[in-house]
Design goal:
Rossmann fold; 5-stranded parallel sheet; alpha/beta; 11-stranded mixed sheet
């Protein structure tokens, strides 16, 4: 056993600054806390949003017994509420109109408010419970499509009493609804019975109002410029899912929106791989694409970027996924992106075996240090090699707090993200900073950060939806339709 303790020391860590969010195009309205920033500055596109949506009009779809609860939910968003939970992070909710500059109203026509029967047995066209739910969803979305110009978002109430019909082999009610919404170009917001009785009104209002605003086409915030990140940087997230008969299964590669350097997303690509899976069991453990399929999906993703940027190519492109890049995947990526000057392929996965404790100087004489009352700071980076690092995306974030320290969730010792760069050059701290910043770009909730970057989170959600809805065409879609 070695007695040279210096040989076992970990390398020095670095501490990244909490990424700032911007609430205006001039990048002068900055805040680390998204909710506080909205209160201080308003939404990023609050000046232009009322020009094409002077009122945010809500349509409804659900059982008759829930109509009063849905109406009460909308009324909650129209009012102000003082926070009763997460007091170190959540500011007072000022009302939807004061926050976003447009009133929240019910669609003015009765055809945009569809009532289902309260009894699941009377729903749809008969058959098993999940078939009844699917039939009702199809009929409801078909009818709403006829009055699409009369609303901006649909509130869909799926009551707990119907839970037996929400899932079945190869079926998920939520995913089927989102796929139908994508087909018709209709954004939807699902609510359940718990939303009607949730006691923390400020938190409920923050979460739901941000989601409705984004689904109606709003942009609440973007990332402020990150130090060291070149202009013309873009990000892509990849996730895979298997669908179809296991004997003839194909990959479905869901490429998330191509994100600009400010975290603003474009459409995403739903792409079905052409090469069949040879070993389904192995594919479920460690999915990967052939060189041909990787080249095809990234070439299509690159064309999305060009279509939104006047034909220009990104100067630098970073590709994220949760599993390692196989050699043939790297070859396919570099084939498709050969015209991009800088390309990085980065694996972002969980690290189950690592933990960290933040030590502070002890007040006890003769004792050098003691554990702090809060976990390691968010943004702590520990290099493991020239190509891998640990990033604590979860941790103490005092700059986002309304008081002093702030640890989201307040439970357990946070685990780091394991970052492995399979292609590309440059400091790993920059790769980690980008991942840290992208954890703040999930517009589907009011949290300070998501456990993983939005490139990973969005692509995972989309892959799951597509796997559960085999007949969804492999087109390009706006992500807000799947939120």
């Amino acid at each position: 056993m070695s007695t040279d303790y210096n040989a076992s020391k970990l390398p020095p860590f670095s501490l990244l600054e909490e990424p700032q969010l911007t609430f205006s195009s001039d990048d002068k309205s900055l805040d680390a806390n998204p909710l506080r920033g909205l209160v201080r500055f308003g939404a990023y596109n609050s000046a232009s949003f009322p020009l094409y949506t002077p009122q945010l009009r809500v349509a409804t779809l659900g059982p008759a017994a829930g109509r009063k609860g849905v109406a009460g939910l909308v009324e909650t968003l129209r009012s102000s509420h003082a926070p009763r939970d997460r007091l170190d992070y959540v500011p007072e909710f000022p009302s939807f109109e004061r926050l976003f500059g447009v009133p929240l109203v019910a669609s003015p026509i009765s055809a945009a408010h569809i009532k289902w029967p309260d009894d699941l047995a009377s729903l749809g066209q008969g058959g098993a419970p999940h078939l009844r739910v699917l039939s009702a969803l199809r009929d409801g979305m078909d009818r709403l499509s006829l009055v699409r110009d009369q609303f901006d978002v649909v509130l869909v109430h799926l009551p707990d009493a119907w839970e037996v019909g929400f899932r079945a082999p190869g079926f998920d009610a939520h995913d089927s609804l989102k796929a139908l919404g994508a087909t018709y170009g209709i954004p939807t917001q699902v609510v359940n019975d718990r939303a009607f009785t949730f006691g923390f009104k400020a938190s409920l209002a923050w979460r739901l109002s941000i989601a409705l605003y984004v689904k109606a086409g709003g942009v609440p915030w973007k990332l402020a410029p990150l130090p060291g990140v070149p202009d013309g940087t873009a990000y892509i997230g990849l996730a895979y899912a298997l669908r179809g008969d296991p004997k003839d299964a194909h990959y479905v590669t869901c490429c998330s929106q191509v994100f600009d350097a400010d975290g603003g997303g474009m459409q995403f690509v739903a792409f079905e791989a052409r090469d069949p899976v040879k070993d389904v069991d192995e594919a479920r453990r460690n999915p990967f694409l052939t060189r041909t399929d990787m080249r095809a999906v990234l070439a299509r993703s690159l064309s999305l970027y060009q279509s939104r940027n006047g034909g220009l190519l990104p100067r630098r492109l970073v590709v994220h996924k949760t599993t390692s890049f196989k050699p043939e995947e790297l070859e396919g990526a570099l084939d498709a992106l050969s015209s991009v000057p800088e390309v990085e392929c980065v694996e972002i996965g969980g690290s189950q075996s690592w933990r960290g404790v933040w030590l502070k100087e002890s007040r006890v004489a003769g004792k050098k240090s003691e554990p702090d009352g809060y976990p390691v700071p968010r943004g702590t980076v520990l290099l493991r090699s020239g190509t891998s690092a640990l990033l604590w995306a979860a941790g103490n974030a005092p700059k986002a707090s309304l008081k002093a320290d702030y640890y989201q969730g307040k439970k357990s010792i946070p685990r780091p993200i394991n970052i492995v760069r399979h292609a590309g050059v440059g400091p790993l701290e920059l790769t980690a900073l980008e991942a840290l910043a992208l954890t703040k770009m999930d517009w589907n909730n009011d949290a300070l950060y998501d456990p993983v970057p939005v490139t990973i989170r969005y692509s995972q959600r989309l892959a799951r939806t597509i796997a559960n809805v085999p007949d969804l065409p492999g087109n390009a879609y706006a992500y807000r339709l799947f939120m």
